[in-house]
Amino acid sequence: MTSSASESQLRETGSKFMPKFDDKGLISAVVVDHDTSDVLMVAFMDAEALAATRETGLAHFHSRSRGKLWKKGETSGNVLRVQAMLVDCDQDAMVLRCKPEGPTCHTGATSCFYRILEGEELGRLPG
Predict the structure, then answer these.
(1) Is 127 helix (H, G, I), strand (E, B) or coil?
(2) Where in the numbering of this chain does the Phosphoribosyl-AMP cyclohydrolase domain appear (predicted)?
(3) CATH of the domain spanning 24-124, picked from 2.30.29.170, 3.40.50.300, 2.60.120.320, 3.10.20.810
């Protein structure tokens, strides 16, 4: 077994946390409501955001537009309190189960996923 194959097997079946960042140093993070399991948002985490999230219990992400660490709610106060961090099989994506303190979306919507594709148009979901 090659070193790469054994690392892959360890990452996929072992118990050691070994996040697999992409070529930009990021992993995908899907945020879901801890109580309802509704999808709230999708963002990206780098090593710094992952460490800050684990350290504080508040969701931190890497802002691609600003190119820096971003604590969700740093200006709005609408933080995401992380209850659990789920890691996918090859450790390149995560699900953060959070308790939101206020709306998650910058538009003021509870979730960033407030629209539905209906043919070629976007309809607004109730609520």
Answers:
(1) coil
(2) 41-114
(3) 3.10.20.810
